[in-house]
Structure formats: C-alpha cells, structure tokens
Amino acid sequence: MRFSQDVVLITGATGGMGSSHARGYHAEGARVVIAGRRDDAGRALAGELGERARFVHLDVSDAEHWARAVAATEETFGPITVLVNNAGLQTPPAPIEHTDPAAWSRAFAVNTTGPFLGIRAVTPSLRRAGGGSIVNIVSTMANTGTACFAPYTASKWAVRGLTRTAALELGRDGIRVNSVHPGVVSTPFIHDPVPGSDLAMADAYSPDAFAVPRLGRPREVTDVLLWLTSREASFVTGAELVVDGGLLLGPALPAVETVDA
Q1: With 197 labelled, which of 26, 177, 226, 251 sits at a CA distance of 20 to 30 A?
Q2: 193 Cβ partners below 8 Å, 6+ apart?
Q3: Residue 259: pLDDT band by 50, 70, 90 thresholds?
Q4: Which class for 182: exposed (0-12), middle (13-18), buried (19 or more C-beta within 10 A)?
Q5: How do residues 57-110 score in pLDDT, each as one tens digit?
Q6: What distance in Å separates the CA atoms of residue 181 and residue 75, rounded to the nearest whole number?
Q7: Catalytic residue ranges
Q8: In terms of C-beta density within 10 A (0-12 exposed, 13-18 middle, 19 or more buried), how is residue 73 classed?
Q9: This prediction's pTM
Q10: Range with lowest mean pLDDT among 9-23, 55-69, 204-218, 240-254
Q11: pLDDT tier at 22 (50, 70, 90 boundaries)?
Q12: Which residue would you say has higher pLDDT here, 200 or 52?
C-alpha cells in the first residue's frame, strides 16, 4: 500500500493505459481521480473501483476544465500528491506536405498544451500537500522521427522539454517531474484505426525485431509509473524512462541455439 497517503489525478484515465494506471494506484491504497472526456466510461470505472475513486470530466486542452478538476479533487480528497498526464491524441497518417494544419493544432492542444495546463493547475495543490510527483506519459516517438506522423511526433518531443523545465522549476518545492516513454503497448489506442484513417498503429510496427519480441502490456507501464512516483524514486527527477521492449535499440539478434552436452 505504497500510496495510502496519496491523492492521484490521472488524465485520459478511461483508456487502456489510463485505466490500468487508475487500477494500479487504487490497489495500492491511493485516492484516485479518473479524469477524461468519456463520462460513461469514467463513471463506470469509478463505480468498479468503489471507495477512494471518483470521476471528473476533463478536456485537458481547456484551462477552466483543469481549474474545476483540481477544485473537485481537493473538495473530495484533499490536495493532490501525484499528477499523471496520460491523455494523448493521434492524428491521421500523412506526409507533412499533406497534413491538415487543424490536425497539427489539435495534436499540440492535447499532447503538449494539456500537460502544460495540468502542471500549471496542479502545482499549487502539490505545494499544499507538501510536495509530490508529476509524470508525463510521452512515447518512443518522442525519441526519434516517425514518417507520416509529424503532429504526434513533434508534440511529444515538446513534452520532453516541458518535463525537464518543470523539474528544474519545482524541485526545490519537493515536486519531482519525470516522463515515461512507452513503445507499442497492446491497447485500443494501438489496435483501433487512427481516427480519420483505416490504419492502426499496430499495423506499422511488428515486434518481431524487438529484443523482447512482443507488444507491451499496460500493466508493465503502470508498474514503472508506480515506482517512479513512489518514495523509492525520491532522488529521480527530470528522467526519461523508456518502456519499449527494445524498440529504440534496433533489430535484435536471434536467440543463440544451445546444444546439450
């Protein structure tokens, strides 16, 4: 029960990754605020978890939504100690010359402005709690270029700079700020077609070349997140933890066959 004294706000908490995070924190004793735009799914998850969980409607690109979410959290549970900026938006694949500027703007509104507004809104609550932790869920696309996904890639790269800047600004307040970079994790975000396209992200990535030759599981990302926001990681800030099974390393060698003596 590492988080029995904590109040955790998770954005995008009704999706495959976010719901895993909500369950993980709740199982370890936290009071969990499930924040997102899918009201029915959010209320259902809060009902499933029961005590110590509630849902708040939140469009992360709207500063007023953030103010209401923080106020509702403090009214129910008290000051926030952990913020997980998990909400994310993918855009239809297209070369830059054919990318709709509206898709670019929307990707930045959710993927970059969302975490910025979240840090801005939650920092006073974290100070009232005596400190805490912020984690931005980024992507391995923030570590490399990805053809035909410029809005998503660029917006996630920007969050790396935001994370490091916030870590420098807030460290002396006892607030740690880090990022987690998942690879291809088996969630609807990966398996369902990208909105406005027939292509799913899973169609573009085969795990056959990964050092760990399979898709990731949401709980594997959750476990890293739980450690990173726990007291066990109290000396870690401004860090980028990649959880990708070796995707960024490049093609792995096949296993060495052994022969019994």
Answers
A1: 251
A2: 199, 200
A3: low
A4: buried
A5: 999 999 999 999 999 999 999 999 999 999 999 999 999 999 999 999 999 999
A6: 32
A7: 152
A8: buried
A9: 0.94
A10: 204-218
A11: very high
A12: 52
Q: Has residue 259 been placed in a domain?
A: no
Rounded to whole angstroms, the Cα distance separating 30 from 51 reads 10
**Domain membership flag for residue 254:** no
SS3 at position 33: strand
Which structural domain, as residue segments, surrounds residue 113?
7-246
For residue 237, how many other CB atoms are within 10 A of its CB?
Answer: 20
Tell me the two tokens of residue 237: 């800030």
d(CA 116, CA 89): 15
Distance of CA 10 to the CA centre of its chain: 8
Count structural domains, the chain. Answer: 1
Q: CATH number of the domain at 108, please.
A: 3.40.50.720
Flag whether 2 is in a domain: no
What DSSP element (H or E) covers 84?
strand 82-85
| Cα–Cα distance measured from residue 71 to residue 124, given in angstroms and rounded to the nearest whole number | 11
Return the half-sphere exposure (C-beta side, CA atoms, 13 A cut-off) of residue 74: 16
Residue 19: inside a domain? yes
Under the banding of pLDDT at 50, 70 and 90, the label for residue 261 is low
